[in-house]
């Protein structure tokens, strides 16, 4: 039971630390990711928030 609680706590901390879509950090992180690995939503959000601000 303690392990499950620890894993849930760890996952919530990791999710909370991800950059918000459209933020400068998010744009920088996506630029470092190979374009072949982008999802359609990431490409759309990148164009909307990082190129056409």
What does this structure look like?
The protein has 53 residues and is an all-alpha fold. It has a domain at 20-53. 68% of the residues lie in helices and 0% in strands. The longest helix has 15 residues, at 2-16. The N and C termini lie far apart (47 Å). The mean pLDDT is 86.
Give the key terms.
53 residues, mainly alpha, 68% helix, elongated
Helix content: 55-70%
Largest sheet composition = none
Residue fraction in strands: under 5%
Cα shape = elongated
| Count of alpha and pi helical runs | 3
Uncertain regions: pLDDT < 50 for 5+ in a row? none
Number of DSSP E strands: 0
Cα radius of gyration in angstroms: 15 Å
Q: What's the rounded overall pLDDT mean?
A: 86
Strand-pairing-aware structural class? mainly alpha
Tell me the series of helices and strands, N- to C-terminal.
Answer: HHH
C-alpha end-to-end distance? 47 Å
Set out the fold topology.
Layout: H1 2-16, H2 24-32, H3 40-51
The gist of it:
The chain is mostly helical. Helix content is 68%, strand content 0%. The radius of gyration is 15 Å and the shape is elongated.
């Amino acid at each position: 039971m303690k392990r499950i609680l620890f894993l849930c706590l760890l996952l919530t901390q990791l999710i909370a630390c991800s950059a918000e879509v459209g933020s400068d950090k998010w744009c920088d992180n996506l630029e470092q990711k190979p374009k072949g690995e982008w999802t359609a939503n990431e490409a759309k959000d990148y164009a909307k928030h990082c190129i056409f601000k």
